[in-house]
C-alpha cells in the first residue's frame, strides 16, 4: 500500500473523477499506522479528519459509521 506501487496506480487509473467525487475518506493526525496522515486522503474526495483518533480506534468512532449509513440510505427525494 505504499504510494506509487503498481496496485495503487492501477486502482487510481480505474477510478474516474465521478467516482472519486462520491468518496469520503476519514483520517487522523493521531494515526499510528498511516504516516503521514495525508496519505489517507484522496484528491477530489470528501476528506474528513477524526481528531485524536488512533488508526485502530477509527472503527469505533461514530462519525464514519454515520456517514456510511447515510450513503447507504435510499434517497429521500
Describe what you observe in this structure.
With 77 residues, the protein is α+β, with helices and mostly antiparallel strands. It has one domain (6-72). Helices cover 32% and strands 10% of the residues. It is flat, with a radius of gyration of 14 Å. The N and C termini lie far apart (39 Å).
TL;DR?
This protein has helices spanning 6-14, 17-21, 62-72; strands at 24-27, 46-49. It is an alpha+beta fold and 77 residues long.
Number of DSSP strands? 2
The helix/strand series, from N terminus to C terminus, equals HHEEH
Number of contiguous helices? 3
Gyration radius from CA atoms, angstroms:
14 Å
Helix-strand category? alpha+beta
Shape type: flat
DSSP helix fraction: 25-40%
Strand content: 5-15%
Rounded mean pLDDT is: 90
User: Structurally, how many domains make up the residues?
Assistant: 1
Q: Which regions have little confidence, pLDDT < 50, spanning 5+ residues? A: none
Distance between the termini: 39 Å
* Sheet with the most strands: spatial strand order: 1-2
Tell me about the biggest sheet? 2 strands, parallel
Structural key phrases:
77 residues, alpha+beta, 3 helices, 2 strands
Amino acid at each position: 500500500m505504499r504510494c506509487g506501487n503498481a496496485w495503487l496506480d492501477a486502482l487510481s487509473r480505474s477510478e474516474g473523477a465521478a467516482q472519486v467525487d462520491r468518496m469520503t475518506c476519514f483520517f487522523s493526525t493521531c494515526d499510528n499506522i498511516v504516516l503521514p496522515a495525508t496519505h489517507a486522503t484522496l484528491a477530489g474526495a470528501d476528506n474528513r479528519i477524526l481528531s485524536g483518533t488512533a488508526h485502530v480506534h477509527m472503527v469505533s468512532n461514530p462519525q464514519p459509521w454515520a456517514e456510511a449509513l447515510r450513503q447507504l440510505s435510499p434517497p429521500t427525494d
